[in-house]
Design a protein that fits this description.
- This protein has 549 residues and is α+β, with helices and mostly antiparallel strands.
- Helices cover 67% and strands 7% of the residues.
- It contains 17 helices and six strands.
- The chain has helices spanning 2-7, 10-31, 45-57, 62-76, 81-105, 115-143, 152-178, 187-208, 225-257, 268-315, 319-334, 365-372, 380-388, 406-411, 444-498, 502-524, 534-545; strands spanning 338-345, 350-357, 374-375, 392-394, 416-424, 427-436.
- Helix 3 (45-57) crosses helix 5 (81-105).
- The longest helix is centred in the C-terminal third of the chain and has 55 residues, at 444-498.
- The termini are far apart.
Length: 549
């Protein structure tokens, strides 16, 4: 009943309706290009829509895939309701399988940040899951009598290729634009992106249509697009590549079905098959390259952040001087809005907040709550890090059950949070935590970087504590030496005033200094027993004073 109530919430119902509408539109576009069977098309963008939105919003969007596919297959083709339902189940299983496998093997919602994750997307979403939909759909068509079994192989390959290319072209486009962790394009960078898109579109129109260049000869220039796609990969990552590929693909499809371009032939179906295979090749290659570039850029950022923290620690005389600069540098380098430092109080055995950056003063309820609250082991994000002595990441702290400051964070639009321990060996010295206004997915590389940064800060604190202890020891030693010299000076002066000659003065001074040394030894002896030592004290004082007591 609880899950039913969650599903019936307006936002979830809206998500299902929106998913169904988008899938229907994608299916309508695909079915308009079905030439060998009304239900089988070599172009199927609906697959990419379904995989992307279910991957991003979760399985609560999956009913929308079933509804949209059922309406599209029943109203736009000549199959029965039962046949349409069977095809729709295959479409839903396709999206479910792809998302399930990706979530089990890829730790981020966006699988286009790392090359290995791109290959997993290709394997699970573009190859395996689409084979499920093609198999179920074609079996359903043959069993219902809408197609002959002898055509099963040809229909299966067409269905599978259309779904696979839809996943490779449309899913990266949607996911990369939904992901807010990418750099925003502004100024000259935005102009460069628009220029690149225009050039790709003009090139595609030149190769695949007669809009710019009218000729009857074959235009085997498809490879000319590769430099532009490499430009997109190196400069704009997966978002730039997916946008360029989508534009290129749309224009190429339009030109091919109008019998122009290098893939034009007597059969529009055959031409689209060849074109889709070519688009798939471009998409896989450039998405993998974009991921490699993104990984390298992220590695450089992590290295730069670590080196900058090292430089700050080397330049700072004390933790109080280094702390604000470290938090600020981490926030600006890695894109976090707020940072806080927690220090373990050995007296209360709790974590208390030392510094929040940037300070908002009394206007910030979140900052005030940080200074007021103290965390025990295992409680809150700092306490969680303390318990496991490992970095921790919360994609959305406002929805975390073990985050006492959730209300204050939500009020100031803080969502993603991560923290890392400051260690000296296995000893916890403190915790640093950071917050972002965006929901950010787990980042292994970043956590590894901050594990090293935490060790550096821990060593810095230990070194400064050792230096402070050394300074106090030197001050104490200096104080004791001065006191001892003052005492010796006073004894020497008293001895010289009462001595008859230099020899007697020397002997008296030796006795008094020796007696003072014995008194010191008595004071520092472990076995000193207080009043029982009074006779010894009396003898030593008498020897120092030169008389009797």
């Amino acid at each position: 009943m609880k899950h039913a109530g969650e599903f019936l919430k307006p936002k979830n119902l809206g998500l299902v309706v929106g998913m169904a509408a988008l899938y229907f539109l994608g299916a309508k576009l695909g079915l308009s290009l079905a030439f060998i069977n009304a239900s089988v098309s070599p172009v199927w963008p609906a697959t990419g829509i379904a995989i992307a939105l279910v991957l991003w919003f979760g399985y609560r969007a999956l009913p929308g895939v079933l509804i949209g596919a059922l309406i599209a297959n029943y109203t736009l083709t000549n199959v029965s309701l039962l046949t349409a339902l069977g095809i729709s189940v295959g479409n839903s299983l396709e999206a479910f399988t792809a998302v399930y496998l990706l979530q089990r093997t890829v730790r981020q919602r966006n699988p286009f940040h790392r090359a290995i994750d791109v290959l997993k997307f290709v394997a699970y979403a573009a190859i395996l899951s689409t084979a499920i939909a093609a198999t179920i759909g074609n079996i359903t068509l043959c069993l219902s009598g809408n197609e002959e079994w002898v055509a099963f192989g040809r229909l299966w390959f067409t269905w599978w290729l259309g779904d696979a290319v839809g996943a490779l072209v449309v899913a990266p486009l949607i996911v990369s634009w939904l992901d807010k962790s990418f750099d925003r394009w502004q100024g000259l960078r935005l102009f460069e992106a628009l220029l690149l898109l225009v050039l790709v579109s003009v090139l595609a129109a030149t190769i695949y249509t007669n809009l710019i260049l009218a000729t009857n000869s074959l235009r085997l220039w498809g490879h000319i697009a590769i430099p532009l796609l490499l430009w997109a990969a190196f400069r704009f990552g997966a978002r730039g590549v997916s946008t360029a590929i989508a534009s290129f693909s749309a224009i190429a499809i339009w030109g091919t079905i109008h019998n122009t371009g290098p893939f034009a032939s007597s059969s529009s179906h055959e031409g689209l098959l060849y074109l889709q295979a070519y688009i798939a090749d471009l998409a896989v290659t450039t998405l993998a390259l974009a991921a490699i570039v993104t990984e390298r850029r992220q590695a450089q950022k992590n290295l730069s952040g670590g080196l900058s923290v090292t430089r700050i620690l080397a330049e700072s005389p004390a933790l109080a001087d280094a702390l604000p600069r470290i938090i600020q540098r981490i926030c600006t380098t890695f894109g976090w809005k707020v940072g806080a430092m927690w220090r373990l109080n050995p007296e209360t055995n709790r974590l208390l907040c030392l510094k929040v950056w940037p300070s908002q003063g009394e206007r910030s309820e979140f900052e005030r709550s940080c200074y007021e609250i103290q965390f025990e082991k295992g409680i809150g994000l700092p306490g969680r890090v303390w318990k496991h002595l490992k970095p921790a990441w919360i994609p959305d702290a406002t929805k975390d059950d073990n985050f006492p400051r959730a209300a204050q964070a939500a009020a100031e639009d803080l969502h993603a949070a991560f923290a890392f321990p400051i260690l000296s060996g296995e000893k916890l010295l403190g915790v640093m935590e950071f917050f972002s206004p965006e929901i950010r997915e787990f980042d292994d590389a970043m956590l590894s970087t901050f594990t090293g940064i935490g060790s550096q800060i821990g060593q810095f604190i230990e070194r400064k504590q050792a230096e402070e202890q050394q300074r106090m020891l030197l001050n104490e030693l200096n104080h004791r030496v001065k006191n001892t010299l003052t005492t010796v000076q006073a004894i020497a002066a008293q001895t010289l005033r009462t001595a008859r000659d230099l020899t007697s003065a020397r002997e008296a001074l030796d006795r008094r200094i020796y007696s003072m040394a014995q008194a010191h030894d008595l004071l520092t002896a472990r076995a000193w027993t207080g009043r029982r030592s009074w006779p010894t004290w009396a003898r030593q004082i008498a020897r120092i004073s030169g008389g009797t007591l």
